[in-house]
């Protein structure tokens, strides 16, 4: 197995090089040069497998010869050691052929734990092979950063740099970030939104200032962020249909990695009959699939804050697929988007995208009503992000005969205050912690300021 760049540069990398990376050398994202494909009989034979064994079957072809089998098996099993449910990702029924795949039983209670726990172990293993030192860097509006912080806490060969929007992280999440070990973790508040933070990280990766330090992104621009989530689809299809019955999915658009992972799972042979991209009022992805117009826009603050952004890095990988692996076309489109903040694709490619994905946008009042309705009719307490997915799945499903699975990405207890206000939450509601005074934020386009801050932090560390 080897990897190439979405932008068509002369790049050929093995799995280890992809893990120990931010972007490809030409500024693109790494993608597998070919996909493993399984037969229906092979997939059906996995129905009885425990979760970590299923993960090995799905993940190992992407690793190839970069790691021996026993080491990879051990590493994968260890990645789920701190999850607090025996099933790892249990399914909860909330209606006729309607299910929620609970992805929030990891250490920080969000789906981000899957990629973070796997990535930290892969990075630590491969850094040991190359005797390298790495800076784990990325952008967060809450859950992604917390998951990375937890996962890399015991990786002595790494330090971390986390960018976050000054006014885009909850007090509870910010207090955890600020409590991190300042010798290993640098926090960089940005006077902007989450999209601005992501843009700064991408620009920094293309102009890396630290000699001798490997930059590794903890966002899903790193291929591991996609790889860890392909398994979600296999697990759900095997549980509900034995690997032969078609299953539909509704994905709250808090991560384009999960959406792209669904596309990959289909290419690998999984019987998926529908993928719905579910958005809140920040509907940039919905507008792309609905109108062939993708723009960065001002993000509204909503009940589902993990979805309050408009810059989806894995859209580049999907465009590369739509253009049949034409790196030059992908590069031209993405560079135009980076310059102008707008993107439309060819009509033929857009029509193909409409066949592959459906999309639906849910407003705030609908979210509140769905949270209450689910609790009254099923006893299930769900967070607003999950409510967006469940409602979109119910309204926009193509087949009542096929199970519809919504990804439950965030634990309900993280929205305890709102759920209590709606009469749904029966447990204790945590009080907002005292938050330390924040330093002045970086200007949202201040790449030079960020580079200087990283250089200063590196000098102090050395």
From TrEMBL:
Its EC number is 4.2.3.1. GO terms for molecular function: threonine synthase activity. Keywords: Lyase, Pyridoxal phosphate. It comes from the Bacteria. Residues 89-399 form the Tryptophan synthase beta chain-like PALP domain. Signal peptide: none annotated. Residues 2-80 form the Threonine synthase N-terminal domain. SUPFAM superfamilies: Tryptophan synthase beta subunit-like PLP-dependent enzymes (SSF53686). Its cofactor is pyridoxal 5'-phosphate. Belongs to the threonine synthase family. This is Threonine synthase. The lineage of its organism: Bacteria, Pseudomonadati, Pseudomonadota, Gammaproteobacteria, Pseudomonadales. The gene is thrC.
